[in-house]
Write a structure and sequence with these properties.
The chain is mainly β. It has two domains: 229 residues, Jelly Rolls, CATH 2.60.120; 105 residues, Elongation Factor Tu (Ef-tu), domain 3. The protein is 4% helix and 41% strand. It contains two helices and 21 strands.
Length: 373
């Protein structure tokens, strides 16, 4: 038998988990998938996991998970996208107003970039974008840790309602600066914020600076920035987002859905999320409270905070509404097994009696645990 040796094609930067962006394919959406209104002047995680909108203007927008058509999939290689839509116009952005969306990257995952050293490396950001509003937009790399520095970089949407791939090089010395290669450019090797990657949809003059130049000022875009909030016809779609330590873009790194979801659950996990679902066992503490211990699929980044809606505890006779939640962080030290105290109303709780923790049967309920950056 004759054997032939076949050389594998060389693929640069094909290491696993090279994408610093989590859920860049927009597949995981624990909170919601349908259109959700963004709260003004707050960091709002609305739909797609790990992505938040930060908006402070006179406009209003919604966020949702978008299903890609077969043609869209053939173009982008993606089945989902994040979609934003304007529902209330702000036709004139004031100097101190903005509309941005972003992802925060955990500091310890940024270490391969070697920021804060003379060997700091290039990053490459790539993504697919589609919008009806053409013109100049910007992304901003915001090194949050230690001394805060920002780098606004513009890109152009050339064709309306057409998927376009953008590839952006992020140099540690952009604008002939040395901010990132000096000691204050360092990012701590911990579980705090390393980078924000901002996409700018509108921003006033206070936030407009010099393109592709690192600065210590709060600059996210340039004076060429479009005002995406100027019409209720405006939409914005994005998918296939990848940020890697490299001087050029590689193919998008597709991870199995279960792996991507677990990566998201390090920052946010929703228990229940339906109607009349049992999601944990609880034990009566005193006449007005009960306790439950629950385990998340993965260890949280940090001690989580809790929020809830439409929850109850019940046994074979009684149903008591949950009116408040407190996490005992002193009993949840590993950030995976979480001890939760439930405040209750609608009857008397018997100490040490077992109960089921459920959604309340009348509408969708949930217990959210969040350790977002």
């Amino acid at each position: 038998m004759t054997q032939t040796k076949v050389e594998a094609q060389f693929v640069e930067n094909n290491s696993p988990f090279r994408n610093l962006i989590i859920n860049g394919d927009m597949k995981v959406a624990q909170r919601a998938t349908s259109a959700t209104t963004i709260t003004n002047n707050s960091v709002h995680y609305a739909t797609v996991d790990r992505w938040f909108v930060y908006e402070s203007s006179d406009g209003v927008l919604t966020s949702e998970q978008h299903d890609m058509s077969a043609a869209d999939q053939a173009t982008t290689g993606q089945t989902k996208a994040m979609e934003l839509n304007v529902t209330t116009v702000d036709s004139s952005i004031a100097s101190g107003q903005w509309c941005l969306f972003a992802q925060a990257v955990e500091a310890q995952f940024c270490q391969p970039a070697l920021y804060g050293t003379s060997a700091a490396k290039d990053l490459t950001l790539s993504f697919w974008v589609k919008t009806n509003k053409t013109g100049t937009y910007a992304v901003a790399i915001d090194k949050n840790d230690s001394t805060r520095y920002r780098l606004p970089i513009t890109y152009t949407v050339s064709s309306a309602d057409t998927w376009e791939k953008k590839v952006i090089n992020i140099s540690p010395t952009a604008g002939s600066t040395s901010l990132i290669t000096a000691a204050n450019g360092a990012i701590a090797d911990d579980n705090g914020i390393g980078f924000f990657i901002w996409w700018v949809l509108a921003a006033g003059s206070d936030f407009q600076g010099t393109n592709n130049t690192w600065t210590s000022s709060e600059k996210y875009t340039t004076s060429d920035q479009v005002n995406w909030l100027d019409s209720t016809d405006n939409n914005f779609h994005i998918t296939g987002v990848q940020l890697e330590v490299a001087d050029q873009a590689s193919d998008f790194e597709h991870l199995p859905f279960d792996v991507q979801k677990q990566r998201c659950q390090r920052y946010f996990y929703r228990f229940a999320g339906g109607t009349s679902e049992v999601f944990a066992h609880a034990i009566g503490s005193n006449s007005t409270s009960a306790a439950l211990v629950t385990t998340s699929p993965v260890q949280f980044r940090a001690a989580p905070s809790a929020s809830h809606a439409n929850l109850a505890i019940q046994d074979t006779i009684n149903v008591l509404a949950v009116t408040g939640i407190t996490i005992r962080t002193d009993l949840s030290a590993n950030f995976r097994t979480i001890y939760v105290v439930l405040a209750l109303s609608g009857g008397s709780v018997e100490a040490f009696r077992p109960y089921f923790a459920t959604t309340d049967g009348s509408s969708n309920g949930y217990l959210d645990l969040s350790a977002e950056l």
